[in-house]
Amino acid sequence: MELGTFRVIGDPVGAVRMTQFSRFNDAAKRYHKFKEHVQWAARQAGVRLPLFASEAAPVFITTRCVFSKRVHPDPENVQKAVCDALFYGANGGDKYVGGRYEPPAYGQLSYVEVTIEELGQQAMHSL
Q1: E strands of the chain, at which residues?
Q2: pTM, whole model, 2 decimals?
Q3: CB–CB of 13/110 below 8 Å?
Q4: Number of structural domains found in the chain
Q5: pLDDT given for residue 84 in this prediction
Q6: Residue 104: which CATH number?
Q7: Which domain holds residue 16?
Q8: CB neighbours of 111 closer than 8 A, spacing ≥ 6?
Q9: What digits encode the pLDDT tens for the residues 34-43?
């Protein structure tokens, strides 16, 4: 069952590795701002956050990045940033989250298209 599809307009940002000190650098600040933007776009599309996934209700997230420049973050890292934005707080585990990212595409406008699906137990066994 599809839980929602939405676009995050703007330059995608990949997940960054953070240490105790690097969480305040410019890359970390861009990453946190991008996560807030993902959450805003998801809520505008009617997605209730934070998402929750379990063994009985696994979630599958597909991301498609469109870049306006040839120098950009890895689409796999962008998907990780999207997942971090959608699964947070006490329910924030993404143990039962699967997904895929499509190869990068290029256009005049940068964005990430996100599709969230709840697989359910039946669909999980058929994979």
Answers
A1: 2-9, 59-67, 97-101, 105-106, 111-118
A2: 0.87
A3: no
A4: 1
A5: 92
A6: 3.30.1330.70
A7: 2-126
A8: 7, 8, 9, 10, 12, 65, 66
A9: 999 999 999 9
